[in-house]
Design a protein that fits this description.
- With about 180 residues, the protein is α+β, with helices and mostly antiparallel strands.
- The chain has a single domain, classed as 4-Layer Sandwich (Phosphatase 2c, domain 1).
- The chain has six helices and seven strands; from the N terminus they run αααββββββαααβ.
- A hairpin with a 6-residue loop joins strand 1 and strand 2.
- Helix 1 packs across helix 2.
């Protein structure tokens, strides 16, 4: 329930701020302040951990790029032409709720997002899925050659490949968001 409360708080703060703040960096800073201020009332799990990870993505109108700002979350994966690339942050930010450690928000990064490609954002339940020998699923290798004709196809293909890797056994929740261009 603590995770649900945290998500609800951050979604509300995002909706409130997204139209008014000029940059992803300002939006991230606002979300961080809100989470830090509200964390004590959000349940024991957040009170103990004190943070949550997030990726902010912006798709400029008419462009073929994506702007990303990562707060300690697994990097998204770009699937284009059957090839996969992890879009890791050059200078990673601390997770939201950890601004008390004094790190300034690093600048967003821009990546090409060509037509016919898909951007896959995943939770660690995907990247930490293990096969029977205990080896983690590597989306870059595991998704190579994948078709991304639609966002739905990209999600289904990813989850099918993770299930094949793990033998259908999962010990963690998995969430995937796909954006197709």
């Amino acid at each position: 329930m603590g995770a649900v409360s945290t998500v609800a708080l951050l979604l509300g703060a995002f909706r409130e701020a997204a139209e008014d703040v000029p940059t992803l960096e300002a939006l991230g800073a606002r979300l961080d302040r809100r989470l830090t201020r509200e964390a004590p009332g959000l349940g024991e799990e957040l009170e103990i951990e004190g943070f949550t990870t997030a990726v902010l993505a912006e798709f400029p109108h008419g462009g073929e790029l994506v702007r990303l700002l990562n707060f300690g979350h697994p990097g998204p994966y770009l699937v284009a032409g059957g090839h996969v690339r992890e879009l890791d942050a050059e200078v990673p930010n601390l997770p939201l709720g950890m601004s008390g450690f004094g790190q300034e928000v690093s600048p967003h990064q821009e990546f090409a997002f060509p037509p016919g490609s898909s951007l896959l954002l995943v939770t660690d339940g995907v990247t930490e899925s293990r096969n029977p020998q205990g080896v983690f699923f590597d989306p870059v290798l595991g998704l190579e050659g994948m078709s991304c004709s639609s966002a739905k196809a990209a999600v289904n293909n990813l989850l099918t490949r993770v299930d094949a890797w793990t033998g259908g056994v999962s010990t963690d929740d998995r969430a995937v968001l796909a954006v197709a261009h």
